[in-house]
């Protein structure tokens, strides 16, 4: 029997199988480099990384829900907190904080203190337009879409571009009402 | 176009201290990423050989960096110069850090002098992979073969490295064998060194 209440990000991270972060970092680096070689245009690479992230997000949400035991969030504020405290922790082992809420409570920033994607990375002059971590914004967008939230996720600050931290802006565009694709008698 | 952008880098990656390499991420995070890498490469090729070559290339890039990093961190900027030394470095040190365990076995080929095999019952990258029937002998281990080739090549041991499934008696899943075939010059040098 799984424990009744929701589990903390730390507890889940401690209990799941883990791999060396450098293997992950370098594999991601190899992926980005392959995309740069194939697609040539930095903008295209940003798009492809976002798409890959989205593909991951729509699958990852199942594992997230299964392992975290978290039930429906009451509002978008709680959702953002859960992403920062549980989601990022259980998959990447990093801590994040939520700040910069707008008055309506539909737009906030997730600030990453640590980001395993960027170890050893330096953007050369030729790739300054690259959003190196764009896969991450795609993951969040994809995962939220699977729980009925259309969002727009953009990078506001990026340490690879000289900022002091990583800041992701998550903006709730609309909450899609749940529709059941099947009828009761089918 | 590559080449646009004005923002300059402020922090230099070389000024930062090198991490100890003890950090971890969840296995799922890696598996998701690797799956996307494979799927993306599938869209770029029309045959299995080409797909394996592309995965190997991606792995090679990892291997080259792993060698540099580990030689600096674990061996005080020294690297192995002898054949058996470098093989055991791959089989033990590199495997242990990257995959959390020493590889199951390291053997010398019985038919050819220049062949060595590293075998793993359940290779990390193949954990969540099942190969569709129409993809025949395709093995995602090509990525790991690429890592091994990247390490060996950059250490001065050029070799052809390939990944193969080998059925194991009484086991449902085959193990993966990484076959290393060294270039002639490597064996000639070994012979000279005695």
UniProtKB/TrEMBL annotation, chain A:
<keyword id="KW-0256">Endoplasmic reticulum</keyword>
<comment type="similarity">
    <text>Belongs to the TRAPP small subunits family. BET3 subfamily.</text>
</comment>
<dbReference type="Pfam" id="PF04051">
    <property type="entry name" value="TRAPP"/>
</dbReference>
<dbReference type="InterPro" id="IPR016721">
    <property type="entry name" value="Bet3"/>
</dbReference>
<dbReference type="InterPro" id="IPR024096">
    <property type="entry name" value="NO_sig/Golgi_transp_ligand-bd"/>
</dbReference>
<comment type="function">
    <text>May play a role in vesicular transport from endoplasmic reticulum to Golgi.</text>
</comment>
<protein>
    <recommendedName>
        <fullName>Trafficking protein particle complex subunit</fullName>
    </recommendedName>
</protein>
<keyword id="KW-0813">Transport</keyword>
<keyword id="KW-0931">ER-Golgi transport</keyword>
<dbReference type="InterPro" id="IPR007194">
    <property type="entry name" value="TRAPP_component"/>
</dbReference>
<keyword id="KW-0333">Golgi apparatus</keyword>
<comment type="subunit">
    <text>Homodimer.</text>
</comment>
UniProtKB/TrEMBL annotation, chain B:
<keyword id="KW-0256">Endoplasmic reticulum</keyword>
<comment type="subunit">
    <text>Part of the multisubunit TRAPP (transport protein particle) complex.</text>
</comment>
<dbReference type="InterPro" id="IPR016696">
    <property type="entry name" value="TRAPP-I_su5"/>
</dbReference>
<keyword id="KW-0813">Transport</keyword>
<comment type="similarity">
    <text>Belongs to the TRAPP small subunits family. BET3 subfamily.</text>
</comment>
<keyword id="KW-0931">ER-Golgi transport</keyword>
<protein>
    <recommendedName>
        <fullName>Trafficking protein particle complex subunit</fullName>
    </recommendedName>
</protein>
<dbReference type="Pfam" id="PF04051">
    <property type="entry name" value="TRAPP"/>
</dbReference>
<keyword id="KW-0333">Golgi apparatus</keyword>
<dbReference type="InterPro" id="IPR024096">
    <property type="entry name" value="NO_sig/Golgi_transp_ligand-bd"/>
</dbReference>
<dbReference type="InterPro" id="IPR007194">
    <property type="entry name" value="TRAPP_component"/>
</dbReference>
């Amino acid at each position: 029997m799984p424990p009744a209440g929701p589990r903390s990000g730390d507890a889940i991270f401690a209990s799941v199988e883990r791999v060396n972060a450098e293997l992950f970092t370098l594999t991601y680096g190899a992926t980005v480099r392959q995309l740069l070689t194939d697609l040539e245009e930095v903008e295209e690479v940003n798009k492809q990384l976002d798409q890959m992230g989205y593909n991951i997000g729509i699958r990852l949400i199942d594992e997230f829900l299964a392992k975290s035991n978290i039930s429906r969030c009451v509002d978008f504020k709680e959702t953002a907190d859960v992403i920062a405290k549980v989601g990022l922790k259980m998959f990447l082992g990093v801590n994040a904080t939520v700040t910069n809420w707008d008055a309506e409570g539909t737009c906030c920033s997730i600030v990453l203190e640590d980001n395993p994607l960027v170890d050893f990375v330096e953007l050369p002059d030729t790739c300054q337009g690259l959003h190196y971590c764009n896969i991450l914004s795609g993951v969040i967008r994809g995962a939220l879409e699977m729980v009925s939230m259309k969002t727009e996720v953009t990078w506001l600050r990026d340490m690879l571009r000289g900022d002091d931290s990583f800041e992701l802006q998550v903006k709730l565009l609309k909450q899609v009402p749940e529709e059941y694709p099947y009828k009761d008698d089918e | 176009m590559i080449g646009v952008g004005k923002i300059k880098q402020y922090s230099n990656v070389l000024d930062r201290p090198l991490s100890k390499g003890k950090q971890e991420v969840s296995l799922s995070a890696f598996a998701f990423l690797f799956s996307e890498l494979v799927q993306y490469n599938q869209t770029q090729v029309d045959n299995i050989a080409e797909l394996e070559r592309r995965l190997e290339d991606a792995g090679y890039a990892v291997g080259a960096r792993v060698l540099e990093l580990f030689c600096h961190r674990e061996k005080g900027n020294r690297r192995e110069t002898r054949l058996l030394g470098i093989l055991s470095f791959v089989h033990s040190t590199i495997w242990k850090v990257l995959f959390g365990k020493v590889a199951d076995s390291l053997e010398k080929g019985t038919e050819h002098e220049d062949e060595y095999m590293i075998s793993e019952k359940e290779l990390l990258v193949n954990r969540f992979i099942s190969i569709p029937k129409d993809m025949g002998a395709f093995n995602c281990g090509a990525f790991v073969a690429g890592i091994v080739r990247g390490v060996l090549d950059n250490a001065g041991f050029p070799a052809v490295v390939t990944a193969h499934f080998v059925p194991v008696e009484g086991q449902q899943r085959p193990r993966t064998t990484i076959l290393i075939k060294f270039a002639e010059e490597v064996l000639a040098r070994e012979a000279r060194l005695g």
